[in-house]
Design goal:
The chain is α/β, with parallel strands linked by helices. Helices cover about 60% and strands about 5% of the residues. The protein has 40 helices and 15 strands. Helix 28 packs antiparallel against helix 29 and helix 39 crosses helix 40. Keywords: ATP-binding, Ligase, Magnesium, Multifunctional enzyme, Nucleotide-binding, Nucleotidyltransferase, Transferase. Its cofactor is Mg(2+).
């Protein structure tokens, strides 16, 4: 941007101010006596002089519309009244709209120059003005069209209206002062108009849209209202003028391009049937926002940026505030790119308006707070300057004026001492913007490819030497070489596009180098090849690894240390997103947040059960993956991880119950007064769930047996709730594209597999008190209600408390508990001389569970505090509090439990059976548990 080598002197500045003021006052006084009378007011005169320095357009409008000055003379001039477009005088519409637009635009100039509005308010005012003109014009034209052609009706007779979508800054609610408006015309459904001169919907709405554009755009003696640009519609100028929603859907599914994702990100229905338009935009959301972290958005950004740079160089646009370096468009592209990358996963980032979207990106940790503040300041500075350039003569320009006097007027009206001062401020802002924008595009260029491994990979499958792998650190270099050759010659690699192959050629050497540096290079490579095979056809995941070296390094680290997570990422590459989620390294969500996340996922797809299950499972996968990462990185202990997995299962079961209930109600109606509860047993009930554990569930209901449901296909309570239970089990086990939620085990219900799937509260209580075996009372120690009607959950607690507090003969109880454990140990212990079975072995976790359950059954009748805890550490603490365990003994058992759960979690994360060579921690745990079992008179040995 040029600076003036000869800055204006103080005298020249004062002469310019005086010349502009005198011209303005003389022009207005000559316009009418009323103007002259108003300008007797010195304060108003001073305001007019300030506005005249900034805007010839405003001065000309005040001259042409004498009453406007009187309106603006108020301390805080409000918006002007909208014109009424008389159906009997269509020839007057164009003049009315143009006079309204120029008058209201002048009010915006007045408020901006005099400091009554910040730039945000000016942009909002320009947006509101354009929306008003569109609405007024369309309403008038629709009435006229209805008289001539009738209303368009769909096949079912439903009347159809035009939908006007605004893209660009109008869609985002941030229209600049003299901008054109980017519009796309659509209509909900095909049909035909019902008037004397019938038209097909496409013709009807195309003609209506064309007339709307002409009414706003065509220059007349009164100028123009708004310039209309229809080129962003499907296929641009070659496409039809108005599109049905169905045709738009097909276009975006088959033809939609990257730049259109940017364009439609801001889309908003602004006139016509806006409700239908907004509903349709919701269906377009998957085109704009992918469900995964979509770094392919940066490819589109690079392409658009390159085109802009080429245009700028060709047309010498260095002084263009919009498209020049460090200009408005770079801020827009930066924000929109981050929105497109992450908006599919984070709804808070999907806003149309730039500044709120920038705030959301800061809140999500994607932009540093200080950078976000700097960008917002730069954006407001540039938009205010752009507005002032346009306000000067109402010109649709983004370029700084070349004329020296115009530059000086611009600077003075903005409060600067002269052009050099403004130019310096502008240069500083543009440098800030360019630095931030360039940083977004840097990661790929900063990812150096290791030369030796890069050369080796590019030579495959025909060339290359395994020695390169051996030198890099792979133990089985020949095996790794064979696997890589098989991968390189596979159909998946050969079918890649040139762009995808280029990405792969950057990614694979970097992955090989990272694997070689990992704790288990050969295992990491095997797992990486499985993952790459799974994502080859998904450009977005290759893009993520290509664009984000931190994700690549983190991925290799995780795969080297966890076979389970390697399997899950390969099966569900969506989990790669978690490696870049800023929340991964922070605290994990509490149970309330898990419930909220599951509810938001499932309820956001209530009209599509399959989609709801998929969305719910994606949340479950993501949260369990984060829990696994925290455990793998030792950011939390294994016991805390098990508790979080149980809380996540609670949240999922709650949503599945809601979904199943809605389905049964739809088919059979509601059951008056009925109540239902889901009871979790085993590791779910005991807050000790592991990765991949099934859920031990029992279903209870309570209802008047004489009532029936009120639907078209009524059912009595037992059958109604049996259907509900079947739906729950079916939904939990249903396979979606994100896998299944949980396997379920129903064998712990009364009478096991021989009984009904669901039990009434009365029959359940009778069974527990009168007929249940001791082992079933042991299982009840860890049982808890996880979902359902609160009052029935409370009734379950009452039944459980009554059952556990029943009097028991100590010797008989010890015998029952011992015999059951002996039988289990004989059948289930998979340990041997070299490996200890952490769960079923002598001194293992089940021995500890049986000891805790024995203590609760023995003492609950006299110590009600034993009824509250379900998890092993809390039960041990409660048994110590009532004196059944010594405090030192309880502490040793809690430590033993933590050690065994931790060892078991390590096995699970690396996909190994839960059998380990006995180390010091495991040996101490076994000894503490064995000693306690023996001290309390129990015999668990077969």
């Amino acid at each position: 941007m040029d600076t003036d080598p000869h800055p204006a002197s103080d005298a020249a500045i004062e002469a310019l101010r005086l010349r502009c003021a005198e011209r303005a006052l003389a022009t207005l006084r000559a316009a009418s006596p009323r103007h002259a009378a108003l300008l007797e007011d010195a304060a108003l005169r001073e305001r007019v002089e300030r506005v005249a320095l900034a805007s010839d357009f405003a001065l000309d409008t005040l001259r042409r519309q004498p009453v406007l000055l009187e309106h603006l003379a108020a301390t805080d001039p409000p918006p002007l009244a909208e014109p009424v477009l008389d159906a009997e005088q269509p020839t007057a519409w164009a003049a009315q709209l143009r006079l309204y637009r120029t008058a209201e635009s002048t009010r915006l100039v007045w408020r901006d120059v005099l400091g009554l509005d910040e730039v945000d308010a000016t942009l909002a005012g320009s947006t509101r003005l354009a929306e008003n003109c569109l609405r007024l014009a369309l309403d008038a034209l629709e009435r006229e069209f209805a008289q001539r052609h009738g209303l368009v009706r769909a096949a079912d007779g439903t009347p159809q209206r035009l939908v006007v979508f605004a893209l660009g800054k109008l869609g985002g609610g941030e229209l600049n002062f003299s901008s054109d408006v980017d519009l796309v015309y659509a209509y909900p459904r095909d049909g035909e108009s019902d008037g004397r001169r019938a038209l097909a919907a496409e013709d009807y709405f195309a003609r209506l849209g064309q007339q709307l554009a002409r009414l706003l755009d065509e220059p007349t003696a009164d100028g123009f209202c708004h310039r209309v640009d229809l080129r962003l519609r499907p296929f641009g100028n070659a496409g039809r003028v108005a599109w049905s929603f169905a045709a738009m859907d097909q276009y975006f599914q088959r033809e939609g391009r990257d730049w259109e994702r940017y364009a439609w990100l801001k889309a908003r229905a602004v006139a016509g049937d806006t409700a239908a338009g907004e509903d349709w935009l919701e269906t377009l959301r998957p085109f704009v926002y992918r469900r995964y972290l979509d770094y392919t958005a940066l490819d589109g950004l690079r392409t658009m940026k390159a085109a802009i740079v080429a245009e700028m160089q060709r047309r010498d646009m260095a002084d263009d505030l919009k498209r020049g370096p460090g200009g408005i468009r770079e801020i827009e592209f930066l924000v929109q790119s981050l929105q497109l990358i992450r908006g599919g996963r984070e709804p808070a980032l999907r806003g149309r308006r730039l500044l709120p979207a920038l705030d959301a990106l800061v809140a999500a940790g994607q932009i540093a707070a200080q950078d976000g503040r700097a960008l917002a300041q730069c954006y407001r500075f540039l938009r205010r300057l752009e507005n002032r350039v346009q306000m000067l003569r109402d010109a649709q320009t983004h370029a700084l004026p070349e004329d020296g006097e115009d530059r000086l007027r611009l600077a003075l009206a903005l409060g600067y001492g002269g052009w050099p001062e403004l130019a310096q401020a502008l240069a500083a802002r543009r440098a800030q913007v360019s630095a931030e924008f360039d940083a977004l595009l840097v990661p790929r260029r900063g990812q150096a490819t290791p030369d030796a491994l890069g050369g080796y990979w590019r030579a495959l499958p025909g060339g290359g030497q395994a020695q390169a792998l051996a030198e890099a650190g792979f133990v089985d270099a020949d095996g790794a070489d064979a696997a890589l050759r098989d991968f390189a010659r596979g159909n998946g690699v050969r079918a890649l596009s040139d762009a995808a192959r280029a990405r792969l050629d950057r990614v694979v050497p970097a992955l090989l180098a990272a694997a070689a540096r990992s704790a288990q290079p050969d295992a990491a490579l095997r797992r990486l090849l499985g993952l790459l095979q799974a994502v080859l056809r998904r450009a977005s995941y290759l893009a993520l690894l290509d664009e984000q070296p931190s994700a690549l390094a983190r991925l290799v680290d995780v795969l080297a240390r966890s076979a389970l997570l390697a399997e899950r990422i390969a099966a569900y590459p969506l989990l790669l997103d978690e490696l870049l989620d800023a929340r991964v390294a922070g605290p994990l969500p509490d149970p309330g947040a898990m419930h909220a996340a599951c509810a938001a996922a499932a309820q956001g797809q209530d009209d599509d059960q399959e989609a709801a299950l998929r969305a719910l499972n994606e949340v479950r996968q993501a949260l369990s993956f984060r829990i696994a990462l925290a455990a793998l990185d030792r950011r939390q202990d294994a016991v805390a991880s098990a508790r979080q997995l149980a809380a996540l299962a609670d949240a999922v079961v709650g949503q599945v119950l809601r979904m199943a209930g809605a389905e049964v109600v739809a088919a059979h109606g509601t059951l008056p007064g009925g109540r239902f509860a889901v009871i979790g047993y085993g590791s779910l009930g005991g807050h000790e769930l592991s990765f991949g554990s099934d859920l031990d569930l029992v279903f209870l209901y309570d209802a008047d047996p004489a009532v029936v449901s009120d639907g078209a296909r009524p059912l009595e309570p037992a059958r109604w709730y049996a259907r509900l239970a079947q739906k729950i089990v079916g939904l939990l086990g249903a396979v979606s594209s994100a896998g299944r939620l949980y396997e379920t085990d129903m064998r712990l219900r009364p009478d096991g597999g021989k009984s009904l799937l669901v039990s009434s509260l009365a029959s359940y209580e009778e069974y527990q008190v009168q007929r249940a075996w001791t082992w079933e009372h042991q299982a009840l120690v860890r049982a808890r209600a996880v979902a359902g009607d609160a009052s029935l959950c409370a009734e379950f607690e009452r039944v459980r408390a009554r059952t556990l507090a029943l009097p028991r003969e100590p010797q008989a109880l010890a015998g029952d508990v011992g015999k059951m454990r002996q039988r289990m140990r004989a059948e289930l212990d998979r340990g041997d001389a070299a490996r200890f079975d952490l769960k079923q072995g002598a001194g293992g976790l089940v021995d500890l569970e049986f000891l805790m359950q024995y203590g609760v059954l023995a003492r609950a009748g006299e110590a009600p505090a034993l009824l509250a805890p379900r998890d092993t550490p809390a039960i041990a603490e409660a048994l110590a509090a009532c004196g059944w365990l010594a405090h030192g003994e309880a502490s040793a058992l809690r430590d033993a439990h933590a050690a065994l759960v931790d060892a078991g979690l390590g096995c699970t994360l690396d996909r190994r059976p839960r059998r380990v060579a006995e180390d010091t921690a495991v040996a101490a745990a076994r000894a503490a548990i064995g000693r306690a079992v023996q001290d309390h008179g129990l015999d668990f040995d077969p």
